[in-house]
Design a protein that fits this description.
Helix content is 0%, strand content 50%. By secondary structure, the chain is mostly beta strands. Strand 5 and strand 6 form a beta hairpin.
């Protein structure tokens, strides 16, 4: 059984910071990429960032470059998303997900998903 569980969401003012955590269970990550997606009300789920589980190579969507940092603790099988300089347009439910190939950005390319954690940024 594969389980990805997110935590760390909350309510912050614009310019503030949050650190999201995703703990993985039941998966061997030697050949996987771990990523973060987000979905705002009425909008499609979109790619945010990804990291190769083994090598730590990273990929970011342009709107979060310089503000968000994705990282992982291999031994703890834990994924992180450090979000700084948050903007109201970052408000969404954030999901962690696992893919068998690093470099993919579509939701259909990710096989396993967490339940999501709410991030709300007030203006």
């Amino acid at each position: 059984q594969v389980q990805l569980v997110e935590s760390g969401g909350g309510l912050v003012q614009a310019g503030g910071s949050l650190r999201l955590t995703c703990t993985a269970s039941g998966v061997t990550f030697g050949s996987y990429a771990l990523g973060w997606f987000r979905q705002a009300p009425g909008k499609e789920r979109e790619f945010v960032a990804a990291i190769s589980w083994l090598t730590s190579n990273t990929d970011y969507i342009g709107s979060v470059k310089g503000r968000f940092t994705i990282s992982r603790d291999y031994a703890k099988r834990t994924l992180y998303l450090q979000m700084n300089s948050l903007k109201p347009e970052d408000t969404a439910v954030y999901y962690c997900a696992a893919s068998e190939t690093f470099g993919l950005r579509l939701t259909r390319d990710y096989r396993y998903w967490g339940q999501g954690t709410q991030v709300t940024v007030s203006s």
